[in-house]
Amino acid sequence: MDDFLDFLVGCLWYLALILLPGGGFALLLHFLISLPMRRRDRVMFFLDLIETALDRGEAIDWAIVSVAKMNDRAPGVGFYLLAAQIENGARFGEALGMAPGFLPPQINAMLRAAEKLGDLKKILPACREVVRLPPDAARTTMHYMVTILLMFAPIATFMLWLVATFIVPGFQELATDDGVQIAPMTQFVFNHISWLFSIEAVIFAALLTVTLIYIGGPGLTRFLKFRGFPVVDWISWHLPWKQKQLQRTFSAMLAVLLDGGVPEAEAVRLAGDCTANEICRRRTARIIKMLQQGAKLEDAVRAFDPSGEFHWRLTNAAHARGGFVSALRGWHEALEAKAFQLEETAANAMTSGIVILNGVLVALFAMAIFGLLIAMIKGQIPS
């Protein structure tokens, strides 16, 4: 009977100390990793709601309020804030401006611009492109980095700090007392151990930053933006795949607006706002200035894309039949495909680089410590 009670107590301790914390951590990890996907699903639901209302000839405001009255939790808090603004008398575009956290900034600006144009349905395909799922490799890599960050990176950083602070000095003192000759590799690691620890800390900080941006989504990036010093927007513009996506968003919106009869200067301004990127807005401001000085639109867009490809595409589209949207559709698809290719390449390179660098750091520490142990053992064995 006593043995059974001891076994039962052991099982309860195992459940309390291992299974429950482990299960809680697994649930937290799942919650954090799935946040971006849940945000995307809410955006897609909202876009489908708009398209369904337009197909049925219903007012979008009425459709949003009707769905909100169902009290379903799936659309999220932002959707109900938007519906509340509409119930208080705000128009659809005004309500979107009063609930900026509900939709990604690009989609928010695109829908508001399309409302001014009077044709929301034209812009829905471009909105869906903004929230299109990334490549499987890129998405898997991001999930892998979140897992590494929350599980292994803090432990690895703490262990390296522990070794550097307490273990290495003790080994060095023992080697000095015993008069052991330290190998050059071991001496190098011991002399630069603070730098090696700093490298691991930098890797951890970089992973933390990427993970926070991935989990935080548009809300976090909007919080980090500063008009006078747009660091996040500058980084986004100089990431090759992000630049391709921004070019596609600007070009797609410009094509829709031009086909809708919007004046060129106003179309350029609205298309720049739809990128939700301050660097793009500054480039569109230069385009508008050139237009006001009498330049043609296809020449002025060189200020947005100095490579000249946008100039060439827009020049051909201006002389093509069927409008700008039809003429530029192939280029937009090529930009999106190139962006996915660059993103997948960067994701694989980042994953491989982190694994290799961590392996090198661990190998250096292991070689240094075991090399010193072998030298101390040899020094104590009589020849």
What labels describe this entry?
single chain, 383 residues, mainly alpha, 16 helices
Report on the architecture of this protein:
By secondary structure, this protein is mainly α. Among the domains are: 2-103, no CATH class; 136-224 and 347-380, no CATH class. Helices cover 81% and strands 0% of the residues. The protein contains 16 helices and no strands. Helix 3 crosses helix 4.
How would you summarize the topology of this molecule?
Layout: H1 2-56, H2 60-68, H3 77-87, H4 92-98, H5 105-117, H6 124-130, H7 136-178, H8 184-191, H9 193-224, H10 231-238, H11 240-259, H12 264-274, H13 278-292, H14 297-300, H15 309-318, H16 323-380
Helix pairs in contact: 1-9, 2-3, 3-4, 4-5, 5-12, 7-9, 7-16, 8-16, 11-12, 11-16, 12-13, 15-16
Number of helices: 16
Shape: elongated
Distance between the termini: 60 Å
Report the sheet-strand fraction: under 5%
Helix content: over 70%
**SSE ordering:** HHHHHHHHHHHHHHHH
Rg is 29 Å
The count of DSSP E runs of length 2 or more, i.e. the number of strands, is 0
Structural class: mainly alpha
Précis, in short:
By secondary structure, the protein is an all-alpha fold. It has helices spanning 2-56, 60-68, 77-87, 92-98, 105-117, 124-130, 136-178, 184-191, 193-224, 231-238, 240-259, 264-274, 278-292, 297-300, 309-318, 323-380.
